[in-house]
């Protein structure tokens, strides 16, 4: 039994509330982690919003970092005292996992949204609220790291050097790798091709920095906030456009040689922005949805148009990355002065959690990071 403080969601539209909980002992495939920090990602808020179904009360948080306190009997990749960054979970057994395509895991949904702790134990609570004994569900993305301590499934753990700045790199576990992977793993554009990125949250900046890293000559970024466009402009964007502009699609065509971009990465999750992305690419161009509006939204274009323009569209989860390889790769880029995550993030103590959420919602901070130490 481990005492922890965790941000609990008690139901749909209920606010996050810090509560004392008692965590179970780790199962054989789990790691008990003392959390240093956890980035806030848009997806965390889809649980209190009821957009993704969840048992309540529950904990979320899926960009955690920290130190291993103890490990279950079957855990091989880390030991007590190791520094870790936390990312998404996968089963390790299915055909996709065996091919190293762990983000395509057959059980991605169950393992990341379904609160599955262990294949034989399935979904089950991770502990109880101190006082009334109500069971608490954790294991969101294999972790639920908006807490002082959490039980993490081994597949979510990425061991990093003990010298790692665990607050700075916590957000590499989801948003940044999801955007970066769309460019580095999926599109792999050539330098003389053109790319447009819609939405400059952490996901969009991940895609943008990846395009800068590849030396793409024309990098167009689109957002509703001038402050984000200005930041991207200072970091290598060649063209910046407001998403509210009536001439947006025409402006992107003009910026990309009159034909439209070779690639578009949609990082807002807004269907009408996906429509603009579709119109912004040239014939034969490719559009990727990283932004996710949640279940029940159809793509805003028709098959006839798709066939006659030879355009293609796909979705992508977690950048098709294998976190133990991809996250250290991004950290190396950071060491070379690329992926300047510090320019979009701000660290808040636990006591300022509500302010962090408010600043994120107002668009004042792109990536709030909650510090538990
Ligand atoms: N596919 C994945 O694996 C994955 C991983 C993480 C996040 N996501 C999803 O990616 C999306 C982005 O996540 P985030 O954390 O970067 O979110 P965010 O809210 O921080 O960023 C979204 C950005 O889009 C901009 N925007 C909103 N409407 C716009 C419009 N009409 N035109 C132009 N820009 C507009 C906002 O100003 C903001 O800068 C969310 O839908 C999230 O759920 C997907
Ligand atoms: Zn799998
Ligand atoms: Zn996320």
From TrEMBL:
It comes from Rhodotorula toruloides (Yeast). Belongs to the zinc-containing alcohol dehydrogenase family. This is BY PROTMAP: gi|472581700|gb|EMS19423.1| zinc-binding alcohol dehydrogenase [Rhodosporidium toruloides NP11] gi|647398336|emb|CDR42151.1| RHTO0S06e10374g1_1 [Rhodosporidium toruloides]. Keywords: Membrane, Metal-binding, Oxidoreductase, Transmembrane, Transmembrane helix, Zinc. InterPro entries: ADH-like_C, ADH-like_N, ADH_Zn_CS, ER, GroES-like_sf, NAD(P)-bd_dom_sf. Residues 11-370 form the Enoyl reductase (ER) domain. Signal peptide: none annotated. PROSITE patterns: ADH_ZINC. The keyword Zinc applies. It comes from the Eukaryota. One of its GO terms (molecular function) is oxidoreductase activity. Its cofactor is Zn(2+). The chain crosses the membrane at residues 195-216.
């Amino acid at each position: 039994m481990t005492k922890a403080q965790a941000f609990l969601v008690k139901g749909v539209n209920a606010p996050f509330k810090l509560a004392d909980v008692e965590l179970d002992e780790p199962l054989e495939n789990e790691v008990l982690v003392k959390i240093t920090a956890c980035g806030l990602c848009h997806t965390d808020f889809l649980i209190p919003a009821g957009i993704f179904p969840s048992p309540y009360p529950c904990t979320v948080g899926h960009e955690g970092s920290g130190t291993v306190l103890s490990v279950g009997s079957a855990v091989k990749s880390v030991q007590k005292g190791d520094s870790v960054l936390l990312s998404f979970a996968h089963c390790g057994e299915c055909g996709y996992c065996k091919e190293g395509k762990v983000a395509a895991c057959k059980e991605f949904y169950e393992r990341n949204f379904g609160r599955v702790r262990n294949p034989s134990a399935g979904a089950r609570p991770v502990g109880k609220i101190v006082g009334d004994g109500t069971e608490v569900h954790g294991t969101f993305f294999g972790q639920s790291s908006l807490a002082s301590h959490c039980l993490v499934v081994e597949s979510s753990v990425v061991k990093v050097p003990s010298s790692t700045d665990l607050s700075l790199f916590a957000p590499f576990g989801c948003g940044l790798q999801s955007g970066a992977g769309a460019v580095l793993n999926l599109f792999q554009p050539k330098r003389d091709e053109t790319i447009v990125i819609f939405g400059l949250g952490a996901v969009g900046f991940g895609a943008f920095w990846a395009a800068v890293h590849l030396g793409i000559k024309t990098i167009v970024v689109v957002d509703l906030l001038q402050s984000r466009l200005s930041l991207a402009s200072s970091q290598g964007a060649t063209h910046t456009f407001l998403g509210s502009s009536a001439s947006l699609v025409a402006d992107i065509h003009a910026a990309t040689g009159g034909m439209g971009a070779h690639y578009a990465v949609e990082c807002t999750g807004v269907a009408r922005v996906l429509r603009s992305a579709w119109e912004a690419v040239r014939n034969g161009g490719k559009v990727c949805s990283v932004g996710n509006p949640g279940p029940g939204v159809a793509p805003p274009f028709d098959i006839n148009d798709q066939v006659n323009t030879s355009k293609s569209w796909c979705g992508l989860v977690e950048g098709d990355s294998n976190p133990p390889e991809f996250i250290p790769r991004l950290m190396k880029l950071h060491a070379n002065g690329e992926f300047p995550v510090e320019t979009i993030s701000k660290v808040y103590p636990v006591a300022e959690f509500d302010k962090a959420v408010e600043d994120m919602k107002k668009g004042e901070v792109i990536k709030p990071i909650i510090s538990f130490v």
